[in-house]
């Protein structure tokens, strides 16, 4: 299950995607920390998932927002209590 996430302002994501990798990573963590404290993001896109996570058995991507040019992707996951994955690698860099 996945739905498209419509953020009120994607300018910062676009700016980050245009930076050199090292600089983008340095700026991505503070951006994500701010995003998860922002009520405009937290209330409609994260808090409703807390109840939903109690009733599902495995993790999944709930919301995805991709840049029009494919240069970035912001994903919100549901991780129910007790779920896990095997140790694995990702094929791209990112901030988690």
How is this structure best described in words?
The protein has one domain. Helices cover 38% and strands 16% of the residues. It has 4 helices and 3 strands; from the N terminus they run βααααββ. The chain has a 3-stranded mixed sheet with strand order 1-2-3. A hairpin with a 6-residue loop joins β2 and β3 (73-78). The longest helix is centred in the N-terminal third of the chain and has 15 residues, at 21-35. Mean pLDDT is 77; it is low at 1-6.
Short descriptors:
96 residues, alpha+beta, three-stranded mixed beta sheet, 4 helices, 3 strands, globular, disordered N terminus
Quick structural gist:
It is built from 4 helices and 3 strands. It is α+β, with helices and mostly antiparallel strands and 96 residues long.
Backbone structural class: alpha+beta
Number of helices: 4
Question: How many discrete structural domains?
Answer: 1
Order of helices and strands: EHHHHEE
Shape: globular
Largest sheet: 3 strands, mixed
First-residue to last-residue Cα separation: 20 Å
List the topology elements.
Elements: E1 3-4, H1 11-17, H2 21-35, H3 39-45, H4 47-53, E2 60-66, E3 73-78
Parallel strand pairs: 1-2
Antiparallel strand pairs: 2-3
